[in-house]
Amino acid sequence: MWINGSREGKNSTEAVLTFASNTFKHGVHPPENKDETNKLPIRQFPFAPVIILPMTQHIGKPAVPVVREGQEVARGQLVAKADGYMSVPMHAPVSGTVRKITNVPLIGGLVSTGIFIEPFPFSGQEVLEGEPISLHASPEKILQGIQDAGIVGLGGAAFPTHVKLKIPEGKNCEYLIINGIECEPYLTTDHRVMLEQSDDIFIGIRYLLKATSAKKVLIGIEANKQDAADLLSSKTPIDLPIQVKVVPVKYPQGAEKMLITALTGFEVPSGGLPIDVGAVVVNVATTAEIGRLLPHGRGIQERVVTITGPGIKKKGNNLIPIGTPLRYVLEQVGAVENISEVYMGGPMMGVSASNLDISITKGTSGIVVFGDDNLKKIDKIYPCIKCGACVDACPISLNPSRLGILAKNEAYDLMAEQYHLLDCFECGSCSYVCPSNIPLVQYFRLAKGIVRKRKAAKPTVHA
Amino acid sequence: MTIITALLALGGLTLLLALMLILANKKLYVYEDPRIDVVESMLPHANCGACGYPGCRPFAEALVKGDMSPAKCTVNSEDGRQAIAAYLGVDAGAEEKRVARLACAGGFNVAINRAKYAGISSCRGEALISGGGKGCSWGCLGHGDCEKVCDFDAITMNAFGIPVVDEAKCTACGDCVEVCPKDLFSIHPVSHRLWVACKSLEAGDAVLEDCEVGCTACGKCAMDAPNLISMVQNLPLIDYSKNHQTKTPIQRCPTGAIVWLESDGNVTKGPESKKIIRKGRLRVGES
C-alpha cells in the first residue's frame, strides 16, 4: 500500500511480489520457448544497404513525406510529418541520402508510400536531437511530445500512444498499467527491455503519470520473468506510487483487457475502452522509449526485435533500425534454406508474412521463423465434436464453437448481433485448443471484416 | 339448460368479437394498389438488388408508382419487361444491359505466387493473411468466392484460376463486386468492350516480376488514343464518355493488359502482345 508516495512498511513490498490471486478466466498455456533468447543481451543491428521506411507503420492515417528524392538526411531528422491527430511522424533511422519515394509493400498486403534511404558509408550512431520535453511540462505538451517522437504501441498493435493517453472529458484515470506481460511464445523483447532499460522505464512512467494524472502505477509481469520483476521492484524510485505485480503465466494475459482484469479485478465492458474502468495500459517497451526519447526531443529510430524460431541460426534480441528490410535481417541472422513460415510478431497473434520484401516497422516485436521440417502440417479439418475446449479457452467467454458453426454457414450478422463477435480480439486460443483443427479464429477474423464492411456500407435505395 | 347458457355466452362473445374485427377491418383499412401484387408476380423473384431496391416487392411498388421503368430489372427477359409495360400501360424503357467485369488476367500460368497459402479456401480468408500469397498485391487470388456467391451461375473459374463472366447470364446484381477482397469486379454497360485487365499500381519491371500480363504503364495505348485514354497511377484510364468503340489502343500493348472483350466471350489481345503458351504453373523467378 502507498500513502502519499511513501512506503508503509517493508513487509508490504514483499507481499506485493507474491502471486496475484486474481488472473483472468480461461486462457491457454502454449509452450513458451523463451529460454533460447531470454538470457541474450540486446545487440545493435548493423545498417542495411538500403532502409525502406513505409509511411503506414501505425493504425491511423499514413504520414506525409517532407523530404524529396536526392536529399541528404541525418539520423533522427524528421522525414515525414503526421497527417492529423490519428497519425505519427517518422524520423530517419540512419544518416544517408533519400534515393526514391515510391510504393512499398506492407505486412497487411497493401502498399503504401515508402522512403528509400541509402546510408552513408560508415554512418554512425549520432542522433539529431530536437527540443527536449521537460518533466515539468504540461500534460498537453507531453502528449504532443509523444506524438512528435513518433511513438506508437510497441507491443505489436502500433496504436498511436498519444491518442491512447488522452483521457476523455469526464473520465478519470485511476490506474496506469505498464504491460510487461509478453505472453506471446518465443518473444523476449519486453523481458530484455525491462532488464536493460529499467531507468528509462521509470523516467517514462514519470512522463505518463504527468500526462494521465493517474493515481497508481501497476507493472504487470508474468511469473516466468521473475528476474525482471525483482529488478524493477528493487529499483523503484521512492516517490513513485508503483506496484510491481507478478501474475501467473497464461496466454493471452498481455491483451489489454485481460491484463486489467488480472491486475485490478475490473472487467472492461463489451465494446468499451480501458478508461471506462479508469485504467490506461501502456506497453513496457513503449514506456522505456518515452523515457529515453522525450528528455532529448528525439524521434523513434530503432526498436528491440526478438529474432528466433527453429529456422534461425543466430537467435537473439536485436536493436534494429526501423525500415530495415526483412530479407536483410534474415540474411544477417542466418535463416535456414527452406523457410516455411515467417511470423512478424509472435506465433499466436503475429501475421505470417507472404512477402520477404517488407521492412521492420514500429509494430514488429519479433520475427519467428520456421523451416519446412519444424512444422506439423494440418492435413485434415474434422467436424466440430462439441467438446467445449474452445469455450473453456476463450478469455472473454464467447462461444467459439457456436460462432464457428455460424461462420461456416455465413450467418455473419447473427454472429455480430447475438454472439458478440466484435468483442473477439483474435487471440487464437480457440484455434489453438481445437482438437478438430477447425480454423476458428481465422473464421472470426474473416467474419469481423465482413461485418465491419457491411456496417460501413450505408443501405442504398436509389432511383 | 347449462348447455344452452354456454352456447349463448360463447356465441354472443363470438359475435361481439367478430363485429369488432369487421369494424377494425373497415376502420383501419389501408388501400394497397392491387397492381403491385400482379407486377410482383411478373418479376423474376431473384431478389438480387440489381435495380437498386432491396428486393422485387419494393421494385414492384416503385414500378406501379411510376418511379422506375420495367427495363431497370436486368434479370427479366425482354418479353417479361414488355408484359409488365403493357400491363401498366407505360413504356418499357431502354436500359443497356450491364455486366460485371474483372480487372485482372493473372492466372497461375502467368502470375507468380510468392507464398503458399494453407487455410480456409476463400479469397477473403487468404487476403487477411498479409494480403495473400500472390506476387501481385492487387491480383486475383483465385479461390472463387465470386463463383460461389453468384446466384445466376454467371461466373466460372477458368483452367488458370481466373473467373470468367458469362455476359448472357450476368444480371449486374453486384454480389461479386461486394465479395471480392481485391475489389477487382466492377459493373459496366455491356458496350464497354475496350477493357484494362489489370489493377497493379506498379510500373515497369516491378510488374513483370510478378505477372506476365500486367500493365507496365508504358503508356503506348494513351499515346495512340490520347483523347480516350489517360495514364492515372500507372494504369490506363479509359474515358467511357468518349467514343470507345475502337481497337486502336490495344494494337501496341506489349503485355496484353488492355484488351477487347468480344461479345462471344473471347478476349482479343493486340498483335504485339506477348504470346502465352504456358499451361502449367509459373514458378518464382521464371518469368
Poorly predicted tracts of residues of chain A: 1-20
| Structure annotation, total helices of chain A | 14
Stated plainly, the CATH topology of the largest domain in chain B is called: Alpha-Beta Plaits
Question: Which chain pair shows the most residues in contact?
Answer: A-B, 28 and 26 residues
SS field, number of helical segments of chain B: 9
Shape of chain A: globular
Oligomer: heterodimer
> Structural class given helices, strands, pairing of chain B?
alpha+beta
What spatial order of strands do you see in the largest sheet of chain A? 3-16-15-19-17-18
Helix-strand sequence of chain B: HHHHEHHEEHEEHHEEEE
Portion in helices of chain B: 25-40%
**Secondary structure: helix percent of chain A:** 25-40%
The CATH topology of the domain at 26-38 and 139-296 in chain A comes to Rossmann fold
Question: Could you tell me the radius of gyration of chain B in angstroms?
Answer: 28 Å
The biggest sheet of chain A, with number of strands, parallel, antiparallel or mixed sense and barrel status, is: 6 strands, mixed
Low-confidence stretches of chain B: none
* Beta strand count of chain A: 19
Structural class of chain A, by secondary structure, is alpha/beta
Binding site for [4Fe-4S] cluster 1 (chain B): 48, 51, 56, 73
Binding site for [4Fe-4S] cluster 3 (chain B): 150, 170, 173, 176
GO cellular component, one term (chain B): plasma membrane
Pfam families (chain B): Fer4_9, FeS
Quick summary:
The complex is a heterodimer of chains A (463) and B (287). Chain A has 463 residues and is of the alpha/beta class.
Helices and strands, with pairings:
The complex is a heterodimer of chains A (463) and B (287).
Chain A (H helix, E strand, L loop, with lengths): L1 E2 L2 E2 L2 H7 L25 E3 L6 E4 L9 E2 L6 E2 L4 E4 L8 E2 L4 E10 L5 E9 L19 H10 L12 H5 L9 E6 L8 H8 L1 H15 L3 E7 L3 H10 L6 E6 L8 H9 L14 E5 H10 L8 E7 L7 E6 L4 H8 L5 E6 L6 E2 L13 E6 L17 H5 L6 H9 L3 H7 L10 H5 L6 H17 L7
Parallel strand pairs in A: 3-16, 11-12, 11-14, 12-13, 15-19
Antiparallel strand pairs in A: 1-2, 4-10, 5-7, 6-9, 7-8, 9-10, 15-16, 17-18, 17-19
Helix pairs in contact in A: 2-5, 4-6, 5-8, 11-14, 12-14
Chain B lengths: L1 H26 L6 H9 L13 H10 L12 H11 L9 E5 L20 H6 L16 H5 L5 E3 L5 E3 L9 H5 L5 E5 L4 E3 L8 H6 L9 H5 L4 E4 L2 E4 L19 E4 L5 E2 L19
Antiparallel strand pairs in B: 1-4, 2-3, 5-8, 6-7, 8-9
Helix pairs in contact in B: 2-3
Family (chain B): Belongs to the 4Fe4S bacterial-type ferredoxin family. RnfB subfamily.
GO molecular function, one term (chain B): 4 iron, 4 sulfur cluster binding
EC number (chain B): 7.-.-.-
